[in-house]
Write a structure and sequence with these properties.
Length: 231
C-alpha cells in the first residue's frame, strides 16, 4: 500500500523538478539573449563604419529573435517570461557591469569570448535533456554564423592595427575568467549542475564539473588561437 502511494509521488516530484529545471534554463537564456540584444543595439551606434553598424545591427536582431524563441517555449510551459528571467537579472546585470568595454573593439571581443564560453556551457547542459530542448539550445547557442562574423572582423581589426593585439589579448583573459565565474554562478545559484547530475556520487559530480570547465577553457583557447592571440 505504501509502495503504491510512494511511486506516483516520486514520479510527480521528478516531473516537477524537471519542469523547474527547464524554466530556469529558459529563464537564464531568455535574459541572456535580451541583454545581448541591448548590448549589440548599443554597440551598433559606436561602430567605426556604416558596414559595421549594419552588421552589428543584424546581430542585435538575431539576438531578439532568439529571445522570442525562448519566450515561446516558456509560454508553452505556462510561465511568464518576465517571471522566469527575474531570478537571473541581478547576476547577469552585475556581470555586464564588471565587464564594461572601453570601446567598440573591446565590445566585439566581449561578444566573441563570453558568447563562446556561455554558449558551450548551455550546449553541454542541453545535451542531457530531451531532443526538443537540445534543438532549441543548439539553434540559439551554436552561433556559428555570428561567431564567424565577429571573428572575421576581429582578425581584420588586428591586421589593420597590430597594436590592439596585446590590449585585446589581455581583455580576453579577463573576460574568460569572468565568463567562467558567471557559468559557475548560474550552476550554483539555481542548482543547475547539481540537478543535471542528480543521483551521481558527489566525487563524480565534482570530477564532471571540473572536466566541463576544463573543456570550456580549452574551447576558449582554441577560439583565441584562431585570432592569433594568446589565451
Amino acid at each position: 500500500m505504501s509502495t503504491e502511494s510512494t511511486v506516483p509521488a516520486a514520479a510527480g516530484e521528478d516531473s516537477d523538478r524537471r519542469r523547474q529545471f527547464l524554466i530556469d534554463l529558459y529563464g537564464v537564456m531568455a535574459y541572456g539573449e535580451l541583454s545581448a540584444f541591448e548590448r549589440f543595439s548599443s554597440d551598433a551606434r559606436f561602430s567605426p563604419t556604416l558596414h559595421d553598424r549594419a552588421a552589428v545591427g543584424r546581430l542585435a536582431v538575431t539576438e531578439f529573435e532568439h529571445f522570442e524563441a525562448v519566450a515561446a517555449q516558456l509560454e508553452q510551459l505556462g510561465v511568464d517570461v518576465e517571471t522566469a528571467m527575474a531570478p537571473f537579472q541581478p547576476s547577469i546585470d552585475a556581470f555586464h557591469d564588471r565587464t564594461r568595454p572601453a570601446d567598440w573593439y573591446e565590445s566585439l571581443m566581449k561578444a566573441y569570448v563570453t558568447d563562446g564560453v556561455l554558449g558551450d556551457f548551455y550546449l553541454h547542459i542541453a545535451g542531457a535533456l530531451d531532443s526538443e530542448t537540445q534543438k532549441l539550445v543548439a539553434r540559439i547557442k551554436e552561433n556559428t554564423e555570428q561567431i564567424s562574423m565577429i571573428a572575421a572582423r576581429l582578425k581584420q581589426v588586428l591586421a589593420d592595427d597590430p597594436r590592439l593585439s596585446s590590449r585585446l589579448a589581455l581583455w580576453g583573459r579577463r573576460l574568460v575568467g569572468e565568463a567562467l565565474t558567471q557559468a559557475q554562478r548560474i550552476g550554483i545559484e539555481r542548482a543547475v549542475l547539481s540537478e543535471l547530475m542528480r543521483g551521481q556520487d558527489p566525487d563524480r559530480q565534482a570530477q564532471a564539473t571540473g572536466e566541463l570547465f576544463a573543456q570550456l577553457t580549452q574551447n576558449h583557447s582554441r577560439r583565441m588561437n584562431d585570432l592569433g592571440l594568446t589565451a
